[in-house]
Design a protein that fits this description.
Order of helices and strands: HHEHHEEHHHEEH
Biased composition (Low complexity): 202-218
Number of domains: 2
Region (Disordered): 196-218
CATH architecture of the largest domain: Orthogonal Bundle
Distance between the termini: 91 Å
Strand order of the largest sheet: 1-3-2
Structural class: mainly alpha
Length: 218
């Protein structure tokens, strides 16, 4: 079992599975660590208290809920034990193959065919091609969804459109949405500096000398 390929494949599945929350992932990684320490057997015993401590889960009900859901979602197989002196057993499902093609075993429904991970990688790669927006409308919509000013959307689009969507006119932008986020951060930073400068100037104008000569005419 190649654990690097396994982890790469399972994290790809995590990214696609909207049913999961951080607790599921933390619990899964705790089981993976115990699986690793036991040299990746087909099945291994677990102690609930140890797993809860490792995964930082403080509630027994949360633990049982998440482990059962990981079982239902086909990330692992859970064999509960009703013997207080004998721990439950876990069987980790393999997400990678020896051929290098990770196979998605955690299918979202029983009728979904297994899909090699290279197809998922291709799909993700295509989605990540965000060098430039399709139009100014797309930029304005993106800014609106993030509750950013429309005027900043127009300035952002006009600026990068004029330099062919390159950073400093040289490096091609890899992700325009990430660049837009940096644009907003910079705009907010400049706005904060301007406000501080205005307050500082206002304070200076209100300063008066203590030794003013009131005998001088106005």
């Amino acid at each position: 079992m190649n654990y690097i390929k396994h982890l790469n494949a399972v994290f790809q599945q995590f990214a696609k599975d909207s049913r999961l929350n951080p607790t599921h992932i933390s619990l899964y990684m705790a089981f993976f660590q115990l699986w690793n320490l036991n040299r990746f057997p087909n099945q291994f015993h677990v102690n609930r208290e140890d797993v809860m401590k490792l995964s930082k889960i403080g509630s027994k009900s949360t633990y049982h809920k998440c482990v059962k859901e990981l079982d239902n979602y086909k990330y692992l197989i859970y064999y509960p034990s009703h013997n207080p002196f004998k721990g439950s057993k876990i069987k980790m499902l393999i997400f990678g193959t020896s051929s290098g093609q990770a196979v998605d075993l955690a299918v979202l429904n029983s009728g979904q065919a297994l899909v090699p991970s290279y197809k998922h990688n291709k799909h993700i790669k295509n989605r990540s091609k965000l060098e430039r927006p399709k139009s100014k409308i797309e930029v304005i919509t993106f800014f609106k969804e993030n509750k950013w000013p429309k005027i900043e959307a127009e300035k952002f689009f006009n600026y990068y459109e004029s330099i062919d969507w390159k950073i400093k006119g040289e490096t091609k932008i890899a992700n325009w949405q990430a660049t837009a986020q940096n644009w907003i951060l910079k705009a907010e930073e400049l706005k904060t500096k301007a406000n501080k400068k205005a307050v500082s100037q206002k304070t200076d104008n209100l300063k008066t000398t203590k030794n003013k000569n009131y005998n001088q005419p106005l």
